[in-house]
Transcriptional regulator, TrmB
Amino acid sequence: MPASARIDVATLLGLGLEERLAQLWIAMASAPGAGVEELADVLGISESQARVALDALADRALVRVSQQTPGLLVPVTAEAALRQLLRRQEEELAEQQRRIEEQRDQITKAVSASARDSDDGRVEHIVGADAIHARFEQLAYRTETSIDSLLPVTGLPAQMLSDAKPLDVDLLQRGVAMRSLYLEAIRNDAPLMAYARDMQAAGADVRTSPTLPQRLFISDRCLAVVPVDPSTRAHGVLLVRTPGVVASLLELFETVWHNAAPLDVGNPIDTATGLSDTERILLTMLADGATDESAAKRLGVSLRTVRRIMADLMRRLDAGSRFEAGIKAARRGWL
């Protein structure tokens, strides 16, 4: 059976391969022994473009030099291609996560330094739920172009959602571009999910992610609100206008936003592994030594949910213990 019968362009695109490269790989798998000129004709591109694409496939280890015909490039097997693309995607995700953690640490240090030297008015410390709400209300009416926010929360009080809705709707009606990024766990939180859908219907761009680095609110790309201590609300928030800090926070937001799923897509399933983003991240956290409790907190779900997901993963791996599950997950390329 030819490799092309078991893998298609959509699968390759889902694993991060550019469309032209995916089409070229399929064409090579469908016509073993085809040369550059023939492949260029099939794809309707020039020979020079085909050569550039072949070099790109070689860089990704998706083609190899034929042992039978020296100088001819042939595609690797479908199994090898899927594994190579999955490995590359996992390495990119790991590198992105490392950058996010590094950015968060740098931002925390920068915000702390700004807070210690806030006489220039670029940093404002606000404490107390009522004071924070009043400041957010003020900011909402002053925002002119954009609101970008990370919202790693679930289980918000109904009154809080009720108070926030008129402000958000007013922003959207005034033409303010709103991007809101929630935890994937809001799908199990009916009031918050309904709120997110209402905002999307009103014109907001809403996405979800299994985990988020911290709570963040950026107005007009020049003013940010961050918690003094993400783990303790009682310490209040900092309103920051320092350009360098705001630029770093924007970079953090864009990094997380780029890989988040649209609200209507949900928790996407990786076609190569059958894992959702939440399952993959949970496996990674537990493999790194996180407890069920800390994993549940980062994912914004209950301890019972974490244990239910883990039990399902163990069943799929046919593992009798978490240790065995970790070994089998690694062997399958899930970690």
